Amino acid sequence: MQAKATAKYMRVSPRKMKFVCDMVRGKNVDEALSILRFTPRKGADILEKVVKSAVANAENNFDMDRDSLYVAEVYANQGPTLKRWRPRAQGRAYKILKRTSHISVVVKEKEE
Hints:
By secondary structure, the chain is α+β, with helices and mostly antiparallel strands. It has one domain (2-109): CATH 3.90.470.10. The chain has helices at 14-24, 29-37, 42-62; strands at 2-10, 69-78, 82-87, 93-98, 101-109. The strands form two sheets. Strands 1-5-2 form a three-stranded antiparallel sheet. Strand 3 (82-87) and strand 4 (93-98) form a beta hairpin. The longest helix is centred in the middle third of the chain and has 21 residues, at 42-62. It is elongated, with a radius of gyration of 17 Å.
């Protein structure tokens, strides 16, 4: 049995988010949350919220035991990119790409 949670259009680059995702993949839920709580990155706060949502989905919708849950899958895919312009010298303009991420977390119960 598995439970899933998704956060879409998060204003953090997927490249930076994947580093945070790799830290918690395969870990116990409580261990993953404590790792995210003490990680000084913007993506850690967002991922912590998504993991908590996946755990709540598992407990309320599928009657899973929280103590036996682990983070089976976690990934950050690229969302739409916001395009902005930065004025530069002599009338030129540089493009600024503000990237977004779609973050998905799947938690499963450990088989015994």
